[in-house]
Structure formats: structure tokens, C-alpha cells
Amino acid sequence: xxxxxxxxxxxxxxxxxxxxxxxxxxxxxxxxxxxxxxxxxxxxxxxxxxxxxxxxxxxxxxxxxxxxxxxxxxxxxxxxxxxxxxxxxxxxxxxxxxxxxxxxxxxxxxxxxxxxxxxxxxxxxxxxxxxxxxxxxxxxxxxxxxxxxxxxxxxxxxxxxxxxxxxxx
Length: 169
Fold this sequence. Notes:
The protein has 169 residues and is mostly helical. The chain has a domain of 76 residues: Up-down Bundle (Four Helix Bundle (Hemerythrin (Met), subunit A)), CATH 1.20.120. The protein is globular. The mean pLDDT is 84.
């Protein structure tokens, strides 16, 4: 049963990710991105990571996606469709996409990841708790990336506010 649920959400995430790229309307792409985020959240639940699943829904599907939708709406997607695109861009994009997929296949086929157990084993997480372990890592080992991410989110929010004020005037 678990493999069926995993397959369902994995296929949904893949198809929705393709929809993000393939759909012409930016609002439809953003909605497809929401489906990707929710599907990934369900996969996190299957991996016994409920905190990460909740954070995925709250932060990405809640905050970041709303920020994307605000930017899309502010930039008026219907007015400038395809302006300035080069004729050769589609061909180059297909070539580079195929090269990227080939590289990923070669790397995936040749990589054998060793299985190592670190400090955060399932027994340790059951004793301490997921949230405390994540908080401990965020505020000790990963404090600099955490602060850089929060600064980038702040800059994005200020940018949206500036764009919104300019469009009102």
C-alpha cells in the first residue's frame, strides 16, 4: 500500500513539474507548482518527516508561491507574451536540456552512494524529537545559510512592495 501512495504522489509531482515548464499561462504554471509542493509534502510524510512536510506546505506552498503569484500579477502576463525571444532559443534550450539529462543519467548510473550512519539515527530522533534536531542544526551548523536565506526572502518581499508601489503610481 505504501508503494502505491508513494508512486501516486511521485508521478503527480513529476507531471505537475512538467506542467510548470510546459504551460503557457504563468498563473497555471504557478498552480502547477503548488501541486508539486503539496506532492513533495506528502512524500515527506511517507519518509516519516512530518515537520519538514508541514514546513514545505507553510513556507513554499504558502509564502513563496503567493510571492510568485503577486509578481506574476504585477507584471501583467497577458501583455508581453514572447516579446524579445530569439528564434534559436527553443533549439538551444532543447539541446542544453538533452545534455543536462544525459549528464544526470551518467552521474546517476555511475554513482554508488555509501550508506553511513551519522549522529541523527532514527533512535536518536525518536529520543530527542525531529523539531529539536532540526532547530539544533539550523542554529549551530547551518546558521549562515539560514540567515542568508532569511535575508533573500526579506529582499524579495521588499522588491514586491516596491513593484506594487510603482504600479499604483
